[in-house]
Amino acid sequence: MSRLGKGPISDQAMTTITVQQLDELRRRQQVELVDVRTPEEFRGTHAAIARNVPMDTIDPYEFMRGRARRTDVPIYFICQMGGRSGQVCATFMAAGYTNVVNVAGGTDAWIDAGLPVEGV
């Protein structure tokens, strides 16, 4: 994992992870991967371990309230290339939830790496 520069919403550095690192991690433990793309995009091709929560519907407070996991367990966010998921990470960080990780390269990098996918 690495740190990016300061996000547009938060003063904290954003944590990122490569798809290869995330794949290694998911082989050792359960991870929560949230795909923030539209339902139409998600129905196309998505990481097999991802669930869809569209960016335009996600509210950090409601999401965390409904989350079954402890707040110290990271949430990994993915989109097509990493931009929208980075915005979602910044929004969560601004709301005080700092244990969020952006997947660098997004679904495109996941597919290019030959990792498990679902969809058409």
Task: Please characterize this protein's 3D structure.
By secondary structure, the chain is an alpha/beta fold. It has a single domain (2-115), classed as Rhodanese-like domain (Oxidized Rhodanese, domain 1, 3-Layer(aba) Sandwich). Helix content is 34%, strand content 26%. It contains five helices and eight strands; from the N terminus they run E-E-H-E-H-E-E-H-E-H-E-H-E. The chain has helices spanning 19-28, 39-44, 60-65, 83-94, 106-112; strands spanning 2-6, 13-17, 32-35, 45-47, 50-52, 75-78, 100-103, 117-119. Strands 1-2-7-6-3-5 form a six-stranded mixed sheet. A hairpin with a 6-residue loop joins strand 1 and strand 2.
Q: What order do the helices and strands come in, and which of them pair?
A:
Elements: E1 2-6, E2 13-17, H1 19-28, E3 32-35, H2 39-44, E4 45-47, E5 50-52, H3 60-65, E6 75-78, H4 83-94, E7 100-103, H5 106-112, E8 117-119
Parallel strand pairs: 2-7, 3-5, 3-6, 6-7
Antiparallel strand pairs: 1-2, 4-8
